[in-house]
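Figure caption, in words: inputs first, then the predicted bound structure.
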Amino acid sequence: MFITAHLASARKPADGPLTDPMGARAPRAADGAAAPAASTPAQRAARLGLVRDWDFLLHLPLRHVDETRVVPIAALDAGASGQVEGEIVDVQVTVRRRRQLLVRLRDGSGELLLRWVNFYASLQNQLVAGRRLRALGQVRGGLMGVEMVHPQVRVVDGVVPLPAHLTPVYPSAEGVSQLWLRRRIAKALDAGTLADHLPEALRRSLDLMELGAALRLLHRPPAGPDAAALGAQQEAAWRRLRFDELLAQQLALRQARARRRRDGAVALPGHGRLTAALLASLPFALTADQQTVWGEVAADLAGVAPMNRLLQGDVGSGKTIVAALAAARAIESGCQAALMAPTGILADQHFQRIAALLEPLGVRVAWLAGRGRESARRATLAEIASGAAQLVVGTHALIQDAVQFARLGLAIVDEQHRFGVQQRLALRQGHSTPHLLMLSATPIPRTLAMSYLSDLDVSVIATLPPGRQAVRTKLIAGDRRDAVLAAIRQEVAAGRQAYWVCPLVEENDEIEAMAAVRMVADTRALLPELRVGLLHGQMTAAEKRAAMDDFAARRTDVLVATTVVEVGIDVPNASLMVIEHAQRFGLATLHQLRGRVGRGAVQSTCVLLFDEPLSAQARARLRVLYESNDGFEIARCDLRLRGPGEFLGARQWGLPLLRVADLERDGHWLDTVRATADRLLAEDPATATATTERWFPGAAQFLGA
Ligand code: ADP
Ligand code: MG
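Bound structure (adenosine-5'-diphosphate present):
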């Protein structure tokens, strides 16, 4: 998908003599994983999800450059962009502060200076005095007359005709040049696969441009003197594509729901003895919210329409017990339940906590993660297949092909936004659809909710269990370590424990682990009287479990950790959370980390260590955390400070990504889009499926459309 594309450096020459001097705006890199080198541009494009004609057609330009006209140098306007053609009269490399390449270009009307800072030898080799050069770029007044910095240039020895259309500039990617993309997209445009799928009358009533016309206008806009008219037309073209994408998304959601209804689930009414025993064994009573939510879940489970419910509640609100009750209900109804968590350490925590709740009641709980002894794994798989394992807790390992449940009645997905939509759907493959319960501490933004939730039921735990005291948050400059050490000593002297999180973003896991290892040595030296444990992502599952067990059993006083402790860890005796370099983190992460303390009755503290100088933006963000303990409020502020799109994008929600539509801007269309989706599904299901597939390839396979 093009959203994951990394841009090639703007100055890196593309194949052929074209360069892109402006550097197209980079879409945000999502996965960031460096893929291995592939040999051809087509293979490299495929790695970004650009395979079919439609993938290329929907790879839309960021902007256009006008290469259709050449103007005399004397007619260039400083501040505007323009294209000229002339003879190279002089080439120089100067070293002022940096190495620069200076080229003087002359036509019949005057002279222009072209300037490059940091250039490739391949560029310099092409620029030889006497050659004819076409140069396009932003014009500015310089010390030596008008100049262009990093223009796009092309050697035009002989006659090179001017293009008839504006030139699109695409979101590009490592190893796939603009030129290659242009040619490939032009091929797709000419392949004639642009039939519109919206019924003509409907299209007209919505005042939407024809799909093929919209795509042609964006990929191959006509050159013309009237830029304003073209701009208006292109806006209409974008509008059509945004509508199309929203329509495809609604269709996908509707098809998913239709499939679930069609397949049906096994009703899980339960005899109530196991759930009652579980409730009786708890050292506390459910809060009113927990009771309400459990009632909603139980009602869903009792029916044959597969549950598709999102359980939202802030960190520490007590979602786990609701999940355990749901699992118990499935089990007392004669089915199996599965609980999938995004990380091994979180899955392990769930396993230990839920096993502690259910095993005394005679439930067989199994554990399945990626790594582990092969013989043990095989034994677990056999237990799952025979139905002997009544509840299975694990990571992504649960959705591997080798895992065959005897009768999976309920799938629970924790921190569901960390899974892709396909991973969540995979858990429901099988003869009948299992009921699905998703847990999330991350509030869903309103506009996403409007589209996404048309397919989801939502339960909310709004209040924390009683007796909790809000965590006190302190902002401390990073150099005041002695204050932090004193705070740790004090907590430990009072019989409590502390986390010290030393997260490093922008670095990889390994470096993060090294930092944690260094940190633990420092901490041991500074606090020789305390027992300091270590937890990071590079440790083996057994080491992680040992570190967590030691901390939970108070064999260690301080746990130095990376962000692996971010989600789900539950040690109520821990009352101090210290976070280093707090300004580097998203508010959601900080709120999650802070949520690791304040889980018992004692007053807890979260110390945010920040590095100075702190930007105004960073200060404003940390203040939000200082002032609020409410995850929903924090999410709202985060949205305001960072703008939509950045925060809680579709990716976080595991939604098929939106490429051109923006729910904030285009949300007003959703009612129309829904009505259109219903109509299309009723009148022309094949076209509906084709529409979904254009935008979300492979979705149909998962949606069973
Ligand atoms: P979440 O997963 O929503 O972050 P947990 O389910 O881990 O929260 O619960 C946080 C803590 O609160 C746990 O220690 C749990 O035992 C405790 N807890 C849950 N429900 C209640 C309740 N009704 N009364 C008191 N404590 C509760
Ligand atoms: Mg939890």
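The first strand starts at residue 63 and ends at 65.
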